[in-house]
Amino acid sequence: MLKAVILIGGPQKGTRFRPLSFEVPKPLFPVAGVPMIQHHIEACAQVAGMQEILLIGFYQPDEPLTRFLEAAQQEFNLPIRYLQEFAPLGTGGGLYHFRDQILAGGPEAFFVLNADVCSDFPLSTMLDVHRHQPHPFLLLGTTANRTQSLNYGCIVENPQTHEVLHYVEKPSTFVSDIINCGIYLFSPEALKPLRDVFQRNQQDGQLEDSSGLWPGAGTIRLEQDVFSALAGQGQIYVHLTDGIWSQIKSAGSALYASRLYLSQYQLTHPERLAKHTPGGPRIRDPEVKSQSLPSLNQMWFGVFAPRSSLLLLGNVYIHPTAKVAPSAVAAASGSLPRCSY
């Protein structure tokens, strides 16, 4: 039996995603045509033995979120529940606060996924790695260049055993080109170190406030409080992937994530891509230069003959409710030809 937890955060986060998040909660913002966290749920639902998916955050359970969860349960035939935090508890605090719900039924392990990542989610591969050599924490990692790595959690591994020997969150100097993807597989034993952090926070807080339980005790940062502290102790391991991955921290990064997912749709969801039909859209590959695609200047200023059917460049998703002019050009992010001056 397996479970999955998706950490969706809350309205106090994601300020870089504004103004897009004013009307739609960030986890429900469409990326490649579907809500951001639907990609996570689809990946979790495909893992054999998955019994329940839990969303943890501090959004109010409003109508859009409730409607999405009801639709997702019907589509994937899985219990999908939202557990609302009483306050922002960090990347690990919600896991500890809702530990009874996570461990109910006795899962052998549970996935933990940050909502603001784009990935092909190699969850079944991670499960195989875990079952071959069980450990409390398995992190998904990928590689970045020296400059990019400074923006992420950096992992130093033993190249033979893949044990995490050292972990630093957003270091000021180069540590490693292996970065944390924000996708994990935890054993039930992984909650014990979170309990230790909670108790330590409670003790530290009571030294400053003798009135009783310190509210800040529930705030736990997986990266700094757990991974950094336990690195090199034989409890944390990393699985490297060469699949697609990116963070979705801003409106611009959502466009890049859409491009990655749209490229994956060729294999995973071809039905979502617009197709060539007689008298309908015409598809051209923007990489093939012999097709003589118009330049941006030509498209902007109309220096080309009007067409009678929509022109698609690359992998394009068109929402069923969308109305597109026959003379339009619809392109995947990054597929438009460059401007020439």
UniProtKB/TrEMBL annotation:
InterPro entries: Mannose-1P_guanyltransferase, NTP_transferase_dom, Nucleotide-diphossugar_trans. Signal peptide: none annotated. It comes from the Eukaryota. Residues 3-195 form the Nucleotidyl transferase domain. Belongs to the transferase hexapeptide repeat family. This is Mannose-1-phosphate guanyltransferase alpha isoform X6. It comes from Tursiops truncatus (Atlantic bottle-nosed dolphin).
